[in-house]
Design goal:
alpha+beta, Thioredoxin-like_sf, two-stranded antiparallel sheet, disordered N terminus, 281 residues, five-stranded mixed sheet, Glutaredoxin
Length: 281
């Protein structure tokens, strides 16, 4: 799949997202790009989307003068998206958290306002095993509460992404290359290693529900909901919402309905409320 910009919107910002199975506007499911899409729509800044096939990500990043940005634990480069290029400032930013910080600093009063309003985000999650995720030396952008929250939310969902791998809408044109890349990233022998038996899947769903319990409690503290601050959304809500978008696309429908209903339906309400910022342009 060639890199294209086939958005229905034009603007000064180009947003680079991972293109999956056509139509890409319906199959986009990568959580970090979703964090950026939600933030761009929250800020209501003009932008267009350039869809990039996974095998082309490294080439596209290098064409914009961007290095890998991260490395795997073995020291090899990890090229990923999202990335934005803002013609208005000449800036290219290539990490979802950094992009949110950039949007807040550059367009502080745009759209729905402050992405990072002050709040305490008391949620931690310790993975039961080494996630083998790429190393990163990024700073907190001046928002340490949000940075820690982002790290912990990523950990709880990443621990359970095996539930979603088989449902990823991979592009048939690049499916073998994409599968090989996922195998390399995960450090497994083959794509078949991602397959779960029905018993293992049931146990992992139980683990997922339990792991989300403390996060749900945080959302339920403000009874005005559906957001952490009640009726006011923040980047913390977008972080969780981005992972829920992946679950919505990649989980079997019956399992997604379970997730929606867990913990008094808190995540279903959050997912639905974030439709306001979920337009795929």
């Amino acid at each position: 799949m060639a890199t294209t910009s086939n958005s229905t919107s034009t603007g000064t910002i180009v947003f680079y997202d991972i293109g999956h199975k056509p139509p890409v506007t319906e199959s986009c499911c990568s959580p970090n790009p979703w964090k950026t899409r939600l933030a761009l729509n929250f800020k209501a800044v003009p932008y267009s989307t350039s869809w990039v096939a996974m095998p082309d990500i490294a080439k596209v990043r290098r064409s914009l003068g961007e290095s890998a940005g991260r490395k795997f634990a073995d020291g090899s480069d990890f090229y990923t998206l999202p990335m934005i290029h803002d013609d208005a400032t000449g800036s290219t930013i290539s990490d979802s958290f950094d992009i949110a910080v950039y949007l807040q600093h550059t367009y502080p009063d745009s759209g729905a306002g402050d992405l990072f309003p002050p709040q305490t985000l008391d949620f931690t999650f310790t993975p039961p095993f080494d996630l083998a995720v790429p190393l990163s030396e990024r700073g907190d952008g001046g928002f340490p509460e949000y940075y820690r929250f982002n790290t912990n939310v990523d950990a709880v969902f990443t621990t359970h992404t095996l539930l979603m791998v088989s449902g990823m809408p991979l592009d048939p044109a690049t499916i073998e290359q994409t599968k090989a890349e996922f195998v390399r990233r995960a450090g497994v022998r083959s794509w078949d290693d991602f397959t779960l038996t029905s018993e293992a899947r049931e146990k992992l769903m139980e683990s997922f529900q339990g792991a989300l319990g403390d996060l749900a409690k945080l959302f339920l503290e403000n009874t005005e909901g559906p957001f952490l601050l009640g009726q006011r959304a923040s980047y913390a809500d977008l972080i969780v919402g981005a992972w829920l978008r992946m679950a919505y696309v990649c989980l079997p429908k019956s399992e997604w309905e379970e997730v929606r209903c867990w913990h008094d339906g808190v995540f279903g309400r959050l997912h639905d409320a974030l439709d306001t910022f979920a337009e795929v342009k």
